[in-house]
C-alpha cells in the first residue's frame, strides 16, 4: 500500500479507537519495552510526547517508569523547530514547564539541549510500519532527519498500537528503517538489527 493511503487509513482507524483502548494498549507497549530493552546507567533515551487528540501511544507511562526505576537514565524529548524544519532535543526533568505547540505536542521550555549524537535509544512515533522496518508518520520527515543525525549505533524503536502491514510500497530513499517496533502483542525486530 502507498504511504499516503496508509496514512489516511491508519489515522481514521486510530481516531476510532476508544481512549480506554489506547490506554490499555499503551500500558502493554510500556511493559513490552521494559521487558525486551534493558537499559544501562548513563544512557539517554529519546521519547516523543504524545498528541492526545490523535490517540498516540501514551509515552508518559514509559517516562514515569524511567523516572521511578531508572533515575540514572536521561530522558530527552523533542521540540519542533518549524522554521528550520528540524527537531531539537531537550532534557526532560521533573521541573520542566511544558507548553503545547500548534500540533498539540507538549514541549519543554528552556530545557537543557541534548545533541543527537548523545542519544542511545530513540522511541519513534508512527502510524504504521511494515515487515522491512519502514514506517509511515505524519509525512513531515522530522524523525528521518533526526535519525540521520544520530550515531550509527543508536537503537531505533518504533511504538505501534497496531501490528505491521506486509509492505509499504513507496519508501523514500531518505527513510531510516527501524531496528525494532514495540506493539501491545510483542516486539518486531529487523533481522539484521
TrEMBL record:
Its recorded name reads: 5-formyltetrahydrofolate cyclo-ligase
Q: Does the keyword Magnesium apply?
A: yes
- Where substrate is bound, by residue? 49, 56
For this protein, the record's InterPro entries field holds: FTHF_cligase, FTHF_cligase-like_sf, NagB/RpiA_transferase-like
Q: Which reaction does it catalyse?
A: (6S)-5-formyl-5,6,7,8-tetrahydrofolate + ATP = (6R)-5,10-methenyltetrahydrofolate + ADP + phosphate
Q: What class of enzyme is it?
A: ligase
Question: Which Gene Ontology biological process is one annotated for this entry?
Answer: tetrahydrofolate interconversion
GO MF, one example: metal ion binding
Q: What is the lineage of its organism?
A: Bacteria, Pseudomonadati, Bacteroidota, Cytophagia, Cytophagales
| Residues annotated as signal peptide | none
The record's comment on protein family reads: Belongs to the 5-formyltetrahydrofolate cyclo-ligase family.
The cofactor(s) it depends on are: Mg(2+)
Pfam families recorded? 5-FTHF_cyc-lig (PF01812)
For this protein, the Enzyme Commission number is: 6.3.3.2
Residues binding ATP are 3-7, 135-143
Keywords linked to the UniProt accession: ATP-binding, Ligase, Magnesium, Metal-binding, Nucleotide-binding
